[in-house]
Design brief:
- The structure is a single chain.
- The protein is of the alpha/beta class.
- The chain has one domain: Spore Coat Polysaccharide Biosynthesis Protein SpsA, Chain A (Alpha-Beta Complex).
- Helices cover 42% and strands 13% of the residues.
- It has an eight-stranded mixed beta sheet with strand order 5-4-3-2-6-10-9-11, with helices on both faces.
- Helix 2 links the parallel strand 2 and strand 3.
- Helix 2 crosses helix 14 and helix 6 crosses helix 8.
Length: 447
């Protein structure tokens, strides 16, 4: 009798607790999206993979501030906005598992504060305090292609902004001679601003503990939520540019430039590490890119059609990766920079359909490659996946399903809704934790 009474009491209390949460916590925050009603299988870290021993999980008690750094071509919004949307959705997903003392901002270098970014609740402010909530931060950046002589002689007019990039009075980040040379030689190179903004915009992210430099077409996984490099090392992802021919050629060019050479190869465009390390790599990469463009590529080799024929041995389209290749090989020796090629953790494929791969192999960042296999960014933008209900992917744990769900949810959600959820991620986490706690109580009682 007493056992039945005690069990009934527990059941009554759990029901009251559940009702309290629903009425006074859950209901006021309808911004908790319907997709969160079914939590994805736990993807928290459980071990360190063998090939990444220099890395570790950080203690939850430590205050860590991180930033995701991307460049956004404002004039190509139709192509790039879908990518920023799914990146933002995965940023939100990652933060649901982030330690409570951690903060991860999204910093976007771009020329205009568009209506889309205002809807996403972005601000034009640098981080001033470690306790600020995570925010999307817009940093006004003037693209190289816009820097003609008349513009550079005038004061930049970026409306009421806090930070102008470049700051022509800051000699640590702005080199007028190099800026002019970039305009003359590389203003039409598609990726020049994605690397230059890291040098000229260093003051916008130098205060962070760690930064992730990436393209816009990535997905942060939940594994990223509590992972940092150890011993001031910087991780670089996978780059598929290397052949025997260009490795030999780059080694020869390093000698011509009086650079040291470590014989490292296959470095990708995604970096994770200390801000100053990212700044050093970006700074030397720019010099190397200029040298290569002026001295190692003829006019026909820079042409699109000829460049395609020369792939993969010597291709102007991956000039940034060639420049980065030279920079990293030199800095590892000259500056004792600790670089780890994390080709199993960063720049991971979105086509992998193995259910346990992301968790077991500690995939931190997924990157869309040039493919039409699912998940393909080209097929997504063409509307080929619009018939898929993202709720059907809730319990799926493969990289392919994760990328598909994040992208489809980002398409369904308005930017205002996505911005509200990001701003209220702390409250969403509290609701999820309380709902999980009540579920466990009811489960224990029923058993």
């Amino acid at each position: 009798m007493w056992n039945r009474l005690r069990k009934s009491t527990y059941l009554l209390l759990s029901t009251v607790a559940l009702s309290f949460i629903v009425l006074f916590v859950y209901e006021p925050f309808q911004l908790v999206h319907r997709f969160y009603k079914h939590k994805v299988n736990d993807l928290s870290l459980s071990r360190i993979v063998e090939n990444a021993k220099p890395l570790k999980q950080s203690s939850e008690t430590n205050v860590i501030i991180r930033a995701i750094l991307i460049y956004y071509p404002h004039e190509q919004e139709q192509s790039y906005l879908p990518e920023v949307r799914w990146l933002s959705r995965s940023w939100l997903e990652m933060m649901l598992d982030e330690p409570k003392e951690w903060r991860t901002d999204l910093i976007i270098f771009t020329y205009q504060f568009s209506a889309a970014f205002k809807s996403l609740n972005c601000i034009n402010e640098i981080r001033k305090d470690v306790n600020e909530p995570p925010r999307c931060r817009i940093m006004f950046y003037m693209p190289i292609a816009s820097r003609n002589e008349s513009v550079m002689k005038t004061v930049f007019d970026y409306q009421n902004n806090e930070l102008k990039i470049p700051n022509i009075f800051d000699r640590n980040t702005f080199n007028n001679e190099r800026s002019s040379s970039l305009y003359k030689n590389l203003k039409t190179y598609a990726y020049i601003d994605s690397i230059n903004c890291l040098v000229e915009g260093y003051m916008a992210f130098k205060m962070y503990d760690y930064v992730l430099r990436a393209d816009t077409d990535i997905f942060l996984t939940r594994n990223f939520s509590n992972y940092i490099p150890e011993n001031s090392s910087i991780l670089v992802g996978l780059g598929g540019y290397g052949t025997d021919y260009n490795r030999r050629k780059l080694r020869r060019i390093a000698r011509d430039m009086n650079l040291m050479y470590k014989n490292m190869s296959g470095m990708g465009s995604t970096w994770l590490g200390p801000p100053y390390s990212a700044y050093l790599i970006a700074n030397l990469t720019l010099d190397c890119m200029l040298y290569l463009a002026i001295n190692e590529f003829s006019a026909p080799e820079r042409d699109g059609k000829v460049g395609t024929i020369l792939w993969p041995d010597w291709h102007f389209g991956v000039l940034l990766l060639y420049g980065q290749h030279l920079a990293i090989n030199h800095l590892v020796i000259a500056n004792n920079l600790k670089v780890i090629i994390a080709n199993e953790m960063l720049d991971q494929s979105t086509t992998n359909n193995q259910s346990n791969d992301m968790k077991q192999n500690l995939r931190l960042v997924l990157h869309c490659w040039h493919t039409h296999l699912p998940f393909s960014k080209f097929e997504f933008k063409a509307g080929k996946y619009n018939h898929i209900d993202p709720r059907s992917l809730i319990t799926e744990t493969s990289a392919q399903s994760y990328a598909m769900r994040m992208s489809l949810e980002s398409r369904i959600m308005s930017l205002d809704e996505l911005g509200r959820q990001i701003s209220n991620v702390k409250k969403i986490k509290q609701v999820n934790q309380q709902m999980t706690m009540v579920t466990h109580i009811i489960g224990d009682i029923s058993s």
